[in-house]
Amino acid sequence: MRATRWLPVILFLLAAGGTAALGMRVVAAERAAAEGTARERLRVALSALSRTF
Prior knowledge:
Strand content: under 5%
Largest sheet: none
Distance between the termini: 80 Å
Shape: rod-shaped
Helix content: over 70%
Order of helices and strands: H
């Protein structure tokens, strides 16, 4: 009887933890993509600048 009482709580905590882990992975991927884009922009800008001089 007691185990079935805690089952919804355990399932909720597992789902919340999975959602948080997935969210952190998405944020990390977005950050990596943004850093790559910024790095590429800087490379293009420096390349254009070096051609000017």
